[in-house]
Amino acid sequence: MKNRKLEYSNHLNHLLSCRKCPKMEGNPVHGCVPSARIISLGQAPGVHEERFGKPFAYTAGKTLFGWFKKIGIEEETFRNKVNMSAVCRCFPGKAKAGDRKPDAEEVANCSEFLEFEVRFHKPELFIPIGKLAIDQLIEIKKYKLEDVIGQKFSRDFHGVKLDWIPLPHPSGLNVWNHTEIGKKLIEKALSTIKKHPVIREEFSL
């Protein structure tokens, strides 16, 4: 147990001290917990997340946790029980519309943190949120959100066999969420998440 605590502490120190990517802004943000059976994966923190020091801390977070509340999961409980990872852990800066999408080098630089968390926690369920996060799990190159949202998949990821259930990004800029098919498939995805055994056990649903 002591070795595990030390391993987790060393991981956090390594993550928070990382400055590999010159285009990234501010400090790394994490939503790590010392023990988790579930991992969620976002794209990257926004400017407000960097300020608050936790993922999904602003408007997209309100939407995300609004979704989870519909299936009986409160934000505080989610944050305590789920290791909230991200493809990149620093704010990428602004683009013309919304935040800049991390480039391939930045994704590669940050991949060691996700790999550690998967191997460390050995999660039973993985919830990628948004296309960049889904891209890390999916084993085909071209797909549409309607092909994957609402589905449950299984695969070996970093040596760990897990289920994964994707969600679209909850950003207000994501117009897909407001389409009829989008709304229908988000509801289906949330229902699929709620029915997963580890969700039922961890959140007493």
UniProtKB/TrEMBL annotation:
Pfam families registered for this protein in UniProt: UDG
SMART domains the UniProt entry points to = UDG, UreE_C
Lineage, broadest ranks: Bacteria, Pseudomonadati, Spirochaetota, Spirochaetia, Leptospirales
**UniProt keyword list:** 4Fe-4S, DNA damage, DNA repair, Hydrolase, Iron, Iron-sulfur, Metal-binding
Looking at the record's lineage, which domain of life comes first?
A: Bacteria
The name of this protein is: Uracil-DNA glycosylase
Stored SUPFAM superfamilies = Uracil-DNA glycosylase-like (SSF52141)
Q: Name one GO biological process term.
A: DNA repair
Q: Which organism is it from?
A: Leptospira barantonii
Ranges for domain Uracil-DNA glycosylase-like come to 28-190
GO molecular function, a single term: deaminated base DNA N-glycosylase activity
